[in-house]
Design goal:
By secondary structure, this protein is of the alpha/beta class. The protein is built from 18 helices and 22 strands. Helix 7 crosses helix 8. The chain binds zinc ion. The site of zinc ion (ZN) has 4 residues, from loops. Zinc ion binds next to loops.
Length: 564
Amino acid sequence: MGLAALAITLTNPAYADTLVDNIQGQTIAADGHVERFKAMLFDDAGVIKALIHEGEKTPKKGFQYRIDGKGRLLLPGLIDAHVHVMSTGFAALTLDLSETNSLAEALEKIAAYAKAHPDRPWLIGRGWNQERWKLGRFPTAAELDAVVPGRPVWLERVDGHAGWANTAALKAAGVTSASTAPSGGEIIRNADGSPSGVLVDNASDLVGTHVPPPTARDYDAALALAQREFYRRGLTAVADMGSTMEDWQTFRRAGDANQLYVRIMAYGSGIESAVAIGGPGPSPWLYADRLRLNGVKLYMDGALGSRGAWLKAPYHDKPDTRGLPRLTQTQLGNLMSRAAMDNYQIAVHAIGDEANAVLLGTMDDLSATYKGDRRWRIEHAQVIDPADWPMAARVAKSIGLIASMQPVHQTSDRLMAEARLGPGRLAGAYAWASAKANGATLAFGSDSPVELPDPWTGIAAAISRVDENGQPPEGWQPQERVSRETALAGYTSNAAYAGFAEKRFGRLAPGLRADFILVDTDPMTATPAAIHQTKVFETWVGGGKVWDAEKPEGGAQGAEVVKR
Ligand SMILES: [Zn+2]
């Protein structure tokens, strides 16, 4: 740009400003309370210039574009503080047969999927269930061959304990009449001894290991689908909990191609990935605040459902075990020190009360060495012994503590958690209000694809502890409910804070990115059931529209996204 042109731009700063009015605007304010406004002005770079409140004059001129909000509710773009971006995308890319009610219906779906994906060398799917189909037997390779004769097809059963192959897949894997099943597995055979197409348990590896790993093109397609899963539900940013180098390169390709619509705060999968991606430390914010490597994701233990969570006392429903740590305390301390030395933010998966106790103890110890604003994160923080809250409070006060929790886990896991923990240990389970009361910043998320990346279900659960079916009506351990403001902050300002992004997005305020959504339901007043049903009309990221419910097939295609 020549000097003359630059001068003109500078003297006409309002040239490409956009005014959004006829809205009921709502955001978490800097002080944590809800701030209401009736219009918003943002600039050409997608940065907010002003909120116009009730009693203030909405500008009549000085802007280039006007968006009529049609009286709808305008909220900050929501943030999911714990997702697995690429797994979400690959799940969306995979053929899903879990809703099919007959073999014929499944075969129809498989044929359509094959037609829709002519370039995929293997067709991969999951979710079939011959019981649901009332088939009375396993399906066969021949039945698959009838709809996909040429290309290998490999479909996992709903429980993951069997796979269904067509003849091309059996051939590619070299599974013949002569093949023997590995121990712990079974090859289902025809009367003549030839494999019928279904391989059970360990035998499924005979084919599974031949499925080609995803290509870069697959990664790109999966990322596009993942983003769509996010922005159509009103999410404009996510934290990716365990990015590999392949994941990061996929994010970078999308950014380079101007196709990164949802902001990603990445946490490297272990120290090796974090260091490989970040080198000497966290990356800068890239692509106008759309991507940053913040830190590292570590695992202290497993999950409650599979009894891998590490408890202080035995499982109520399996007294011979209390789960297992995935790291010793020494290993955890070493890994955390390694990360902290280079200022990587640390996010550690901890579910069981012993895992949380050891993690908090290690944080407490290390906070003497690694001072400052660290915002170390506990991912899930699912079961905390109330005796350990003082330790959490100490860490929160000295270096900042983030409790990254998933409200929908409480509603989904309620009965399972009662079985695993018994009645005596429920007080510290999914204890959002206690975490907040002890100084932790509550950042909310979904753990997608474990759960749908649906923030509305999460907000409804957070304020009620009642599930989608209204159970239990009085709320489960209702003392751990949070206020509506806290729930909204958990999905906006606090989720941004949890990723060191609070000066960039997460609230609507001058100087922050214009990430916002237009919806039909007010989370400050609606019933939990109504919040769960919230319709997202539009999603905007950095002043560009990425989702319009009236053009759902359009997705982010053609939307004016990154202006600068
Ligand atoms: Zn996770």
